[in-house]
Write a structure and sequence with these properties.
With 175 residues, the protein is α+β, with helices and mostly antiparallel strands. It has one domain (2-174): 2-Layer Sandwich (Alpha-Beta Plaits), CATH 3.30.70. The chain is 21% helix and 26% strand. The chain has helices at residues 15-27, 66-79, 121-130; strands at 2-10, 32-37, 41-43, 53-62, 94-100, 105-106, 111-112, 135-136, 140-141, 154-156. The two termini are 26 Å apart.
Amino acid sequence: MARAFIGFGGNIGDTRQIITDAIVCLALRSELQILAKSCFYQSAPLEATGDDYINAVIEIETELTPYGLLHVCQVIEKEFGRERPYSNAPRTLDLDILSFEGVTQNETELMLPHPRMVERSFVLLPLLEIAPDFFLPNLGALKHYLPKVADQKIEKLPCRNCNCGEKAVYSPASH
């Protein structure tokens, strides 16, 4: 089993519900287990257009390979109406594999760890909420990147009936 972190985002439709439902879709898969989920964050578009985004991060353990996990994420995006008309287009759901334990790769289809994760508050804040000491060999402690994204507009949204940020196995019934 490998540990991985997945970032969720979207800015079309009821994004909080879409992300919650997408997490449930992942939780129902036998080849992975959700260990932790961040609260939701609302952020201004960065290098994109449209309404504000809602973002969250989950931590999982999985038997899948990185490409197997990518395939699962892309299938879920498609199930929720994800279209890719142009780069950084508004979207119903975006799933990004942020890191996959023990894997560093720089391939066109899948770069690990995610190449821009330290440049984005909407990744760093929810990730550090559930993994405050997150460390990557080539980047170091991710908390040291927070001052570099301090000027990005972001707000932690109040959680509704969940244990966001707590290390516990995710249960679909909790949302």
